[in-house]
């Protein structure tokens, strides 16, 4: 485990970097605020371009603890609530600016130290190449948020950016490519994240009410894994060989008790294969229900694996 001095030294550069990112995003929002104020349709009220969305989801997660040793993996029900408010502004016939704010709450009642609340602004720019519903669309999104985690070590600021190219090929079939970057600067180096990912997705509107969608992608960067002390002690003291011991002793870790007394959280470099499949039913013009299966197969730098699967039911309402 790192000493306070070592943690302070390790955190110095990420702290400066994340705050530079924060100031850049805030400056971008302030500079573009004038564009929102100059509405091209004076007759329309400010609220006409405001979209508010609420999403609630209940999930069953296999290996929520992201643990490599199968007998100690923890499965649990999780619940999520997301609120989003977005306003759009047409800058030119092919350009659309959108900004807003997001709030999301996550809870796992059986492991309440994982509970967290995220709040922050979002800003994006969209370019449409051509006319009509089949024209391709390129969209840049940026977001900045604060994670108020119940576990003090995981609290901190996050910055995100994504670039997405999407196209509708037929009235019932659309697909897209997305690249995304995320950085989380937590109070403890154990929970620092620097990730980038890419994914492809497609949606098929089967009928007026039913649709089927799927996605596949890959993520690389830091992830946080967990282990019972009985397993972690063997790992760092050579019980699983010198390669495992050397690597884990070089990474940030600490006792967090997230999934039981003495449980350890540790930060590793990893690649993650992601995929999901979902079916959606339109209950009304404003409300949809979705059943989703997701899989994340994590392999860290020395080949240790952490498979995770989840099944979820969610409802989305657009006000």
Describe the overall structure:
- Strands 1-2-3-4-5-6-7-8-9-11-12-13 form a twelve-stranded antiparallel barrel.
- Strand 8 (193-205) and strand 9 form a beta hairpin.
- Mean pLDDT is 89; it is low at 1-16 and 28-43.
- The longest helix has 34 residues, at 4-37.
- It has helices at 4-37, 229-236, 242-249; strands at residues 50-62, 76-92, 95-107, 116-128, 137-149, 156-170, 173-186, 193-205, 210-227, 253-255, 264-282, 287-300, 305-318.
- With 319 residues, it is an alpha+beta fold.
- The termini are far apart.
- The protein has one domain (4-318): monomeric porin ompg (Porin, Beta Barrel).
- The protein is built from three helices and 13 strands.
Give me some keywords for this one.
twelve-stranded antiparallel beta barrel; elongated; alpha+beta; 319 residues; Porin; disordered N terminus
Strand percentage: over 45%
Overall shape: elongated
SSE order in H/E notation?
A: HEEEEEEEEEHHEEEE
Examine the coordinates and then state which fold CATH places here, giving the name of the CATH topology: Porin
What strand order characterises the main sheet?
1-2-3-4-5-6-7-8-9-11-12-13
CATH architecture: Beta Barrel
Number of domains: 1
What is the helix tally?
Answer: 3
Percent range of helical residues: 10-25%
- Residue-averaged pLDDT: 89
| Rg, alpha carbons | 22 Å
Poorly predicted runs: 1-16, 28-43
């Amino acid at each position: 485990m790192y000493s306070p001095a070592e943690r302070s030294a390790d955190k110095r550069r990420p702290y400066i970097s994340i705050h530079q990112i924060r100031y850049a995003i805030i400056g971008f929002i302030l500079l573009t605020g004038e564009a929102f104020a100059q509405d091209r349709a004076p007759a329309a009220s400010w609220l006409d371009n405001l979209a508010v969305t609420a999403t609630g989801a209940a999930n069953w997660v296999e290996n929520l603890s992201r643990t490599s040793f199968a007998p100690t993996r923890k499965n649990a029900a999780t619940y999520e609530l997301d609120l989003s408010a977005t306003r759009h502004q047409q800058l030119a016939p092919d350009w659309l600016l959108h900004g807003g704010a997001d709030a999301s709450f996550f809870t796992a009642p059986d492991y309440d130290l994982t509970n967290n609340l995220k709040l922050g602004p979002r800003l994006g720019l969209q370019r449409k190449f051509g006319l009509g519903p089949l024209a391709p669309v390129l969209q840049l999104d940026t977001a900045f948020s604060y994670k108020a985690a119940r576990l003090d070590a995981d609290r901190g600021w996050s910055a995100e950016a994504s670039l997405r190219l999407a196209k509708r090929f037929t009235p019932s079939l659309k697909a897209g490519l997305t690249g995304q970057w995320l950085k989380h600067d937590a109070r403890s180096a154990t929970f620092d994240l620097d990730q980038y990912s890419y994914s492809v997705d497609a949606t098929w509107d089967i009928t007026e009410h039913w649709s089927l969608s799927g996605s596949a992608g890959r993520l690389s960067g830091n992830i946080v894994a967990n282990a019972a002390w009985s397993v972690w002690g063997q790992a760092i003291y050579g019980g699983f060989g010198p390669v495992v011991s050397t690597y884990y002793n070089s990474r940030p870790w600490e006792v967090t008790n997230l999934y039981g007394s003495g449980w350890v959280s540790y930060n590793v470099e990893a690649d993650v294969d992601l995929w999901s499949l979902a079916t959606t039913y339109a209950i009304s013009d404003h409300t949809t229900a979705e059943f989703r299966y997701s899989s994340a197969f994590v392999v860290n730098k020395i080949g240790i694996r952490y498979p995770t699967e989840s099944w979820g039911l969610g409802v989305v309402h657009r006000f």
